[in-house]
């Protein structure tokens, strides 16, 4: 960011029209249009597939123990990030806060790439998630048909696997269930 430019504030973010997703990343305001259908489909399918984890307790249909949310607003100092999906282990966040945002870093984030936000998600947001101690990240590219599974190790992201196409996979931290990648892609 140009040092002569003023750092964006939360008031700047609140002025962004409701039909856009607004974030403050390293002092800069980013406003993106609502995602296109390939992005929305991948997000929705993942949220449905991970549903068994967000139940209060383990059940025959899933292990439970997580809060999994669509587009939560995360506040990390002056950064305001909105991942596509995020999850907190209930052991770390036993109760859902009554605020519109979350200061506690999630245990897992998922960024579904769009052509207009891919570089922001990969270069800047992943670095902030690492700095905040998010243990796991998934990067989904619905146009390329890929799922990258990352784990934070010693402050750096390690790519554990890159899955593609119509594979059925198990991916940490949700390796207790099969994910059918074909359900994430509009053309599969």
Question: What is the β-strand count?
Answer: 12
Distance between the termini: 40 Å
What is the percentage of strand-forming residues?
Answer: 25-35%
Overall shape: it is globular
Radius of gyration: 16 Å
Approximately how much helix is present in the residues?
A: 10-25%
- Our count of helices gives 3
Low-confidence stretches: none
Q: Give the overall average pLDDT.
A: 91
Strand order of the largest sheet: 3-6-7-8-9-10
Task: Output the helix-strand order.
Answer: HEEHEEEEEHEEEEE
The secondary-structure class comes to alpha+beta
Biggest pleated-sheet summary: 6 strands, mixed
Features:
single chain; alpha+beta; 6-stranded mixed beta sheet; two-stranded antiparallel ribbon; 32% strand
How would you sum up this structure, described in words?
This protein has helices at 10-14, 37-49, 118-131; strands spanning 20-25, 28-33, 66-70, 74-76, 79-81, 85-89, 108-112, 136-141, 146-153, 156-164, 168-169, 179-180. The strands form four sheets. It has a six-stranded mixed sheet, sandwiched between helices. A two-stranded antiparallel sheet has the order 1-2. It is an alpha+beta fold and 188 residues long. The protein is built from three helices and twelve strands; from the N terminus they run H-E-E-H-E-E-E-E-E-H-E-E-E-E-E. It starts with 9 loop residues before the first helix and ends in an 8-residue tail after the last strand.
């Amino acid at each position: 960011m140009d040092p002569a430019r003023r750092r964006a504030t939360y008031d700047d973010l609140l002025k962004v029209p409701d039909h856009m997703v607004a974030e403050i990343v390293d002092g800069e305001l980013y406003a993106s249009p609502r995602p296109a259908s390939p992005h929305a489909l991948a997000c929705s399918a993942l949220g449905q597939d991970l549903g068994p984890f967000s139940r209060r307790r383990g059940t025959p249909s899933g292990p439970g123990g997580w809060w999994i949310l669509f587009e939560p607003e995360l506040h990390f100092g002056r950064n305001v990030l909105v991942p596509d999906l995020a999850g907190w282990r209930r052991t770390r966040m036993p109760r859902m806060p009554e605020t519109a945002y979350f200061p506690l870093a999630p245990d897992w984030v998922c960024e579904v790439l769009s052509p207009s936000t891919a570089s922001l998600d990969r270069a800047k947001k992943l670095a902030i998630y690492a700095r905040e101690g998010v243990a796991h990240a998934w990067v989904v590219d619905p146009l390329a048909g890929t799922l990258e599974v990352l784990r934070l190790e010693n402050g750096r992201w390690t790519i554990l696997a890159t899955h593609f196409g119509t594979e059925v996979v198990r991916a940490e931290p949700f390796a207790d269930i099969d994910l059918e990648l074909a359900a994430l892609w509009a053309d599969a």
